[in-house]
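Just curious: can you write whichever protein you like plus the matching structure tokens?

***
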Amino acid sequence: MPQPFVLLAVADGMGGVGHGQEASQLAASSLVEYVSHSLCSQQGPYEDWLSLLKAGVQYANRLVYEHSLQEQTAMGTTMTATLVSGTTAYVAHVGDSRLYLYRKTAGLVQKTRDHSLVATLVEEGIIAPDDIYTHPKRNQIYRSLGNEDTVDVDASLIPLAAGDILLLCSDGLWEMVRDQQIESIMITPMPTPSHTARALIQAALAGGGADNVSAIVAQVSNV
């Protein structure tokens, strides 16, 4: 029997007339299906969580790609997934949804890299970091699930400490709410992490709500 774990994922779909929603729902359910099936068929404790998560995202990509071909329509989705087991968060990421880590000693830190045109322009020094919020091509991403039968998946692991807070969110949140305000909301005492997630979503809606907003907040109670 594998050790306890938590699987968190945000998928933000792209495609007209409901196809984006279809793609994101298919990707999320496919990831859960793959991880669950792999663990159920595993004998003894699971060792390579990161490879499992990456393979799950690849599986989700293939199903979205095949569905897109069947429907003969362009559809795709981002995917930011985190599997927490023991004292480690394993991360697999495609697109411009984000994973943040809040730790009291370091503050709020973005732990994923946006696969977007504006992020590349910032890295190359062509535009300033704050310009990503207003650039006319800020919503153009160059990597997503569903474009091809395979996809490059960024993968990493994060050592966790008691009191850490993880935030997974779509660009509908971080484009509307700057990191400083996100951090302020995350450190505001609330009954549960779900209340914090709802407060973040309300802040995004109050800030303009120009896009779908998804957010998951999870707190590490002990390690």
